[in-house]
Specification:
By secondary structure, the chain is of the alpha+beta class. It contains four helices and five strands; from the N terminus they run E-H-H-E-E-H-H-E-E. Strand 2 and strand 3 form a beta hairpin.
């Protein structure tokens, strides 16, 4: 399994609205892609911003390609991301998942 990570920042006051937008776009797209094994969406408020950190889990590099296209190192963005994001990573990082223990399958209610 492969973990794919990405970070982006909004103004603090846009944190809830951006999360709702992501639930309709990126997070929905992950779920709809064959080979996606889940996503953990993290948020913290710091220094007047909402920082988002997404960890998506994939069964293979081919599964990531189905989602991201041929350049799997490049982040995927949606039409209104520019409306919310004040800073963002243009690239993503990939890690081999070498161990999991006690993974919670549902931390918060799904939309």
């Amino acid at each position: 399994m492969i973990a794919r990570t990405w970070r982006g920042w909004t103004r603090k006051e846009d944190g809830e609205e951006y999360l709702a937008y992501q639930l309709e776009t990126g997070l929905a797209a992950y779920r709809q892609t064959e080979g996606n094994r889940g996503v953990i969406a993290l948020r913290r408020y710091k220094d007047g911003r909402a920082e988002f950190f997404f960890v998506t889990l994939w069964e293979s590099r081919e599964a990531i390609t189905r989602f991201a296209g041929s350049d799997v190192e490049r982040a995927v963005f949606y039409p209104e991301d520019a409306k919310y994001l004040v800073a963002r990573d243009e690239h993503v990082d990939h890690f081999e998942v070498v161990h999991t223990d006690g993974v919670v399958t549902q931390l918060v209610p799904q939309a």
